[in-house]
Amino acid sequence: MDEYGHALAKLSLAICELAIGPGDVRSRLLAAALALGGLMPKDFPEHLRPDFEWVEKMLTRAGPIPITLAKMQNRTGRQDRRADSPAGGPAPGVGRGPRAITENNH
User: Fold this and answer.
1) pTM
2) Which residue has the higher pLDDT, 46 or 95?
3) Helices (H), the chain
């Protein structure tokens, strides 16, 4: 398995939970967060670490993940990091899917 294979496998599972998992956005976010369990920024290529850190920050901004999600409105759960990036453009790695983890471009 390549250097980022473990992260890629967990990220792929998290994406499936978000895309086709049961329940509302908050329920799918919880399932996706559990799928990402144990991953750290160092598990991702350098250019994707800020994206992973943003996800962690958003999921824990009110405390542990279940508390944050309980306080979150569904429309917040649909928020995209692109809104936080300079000039409103895509943030590095955002919108390119799990393949971005194995790419070597920035």
Assistant:
1) 0.70
2) 46
3) 5-20, 25-35, 49-59, 65-71, 74-77
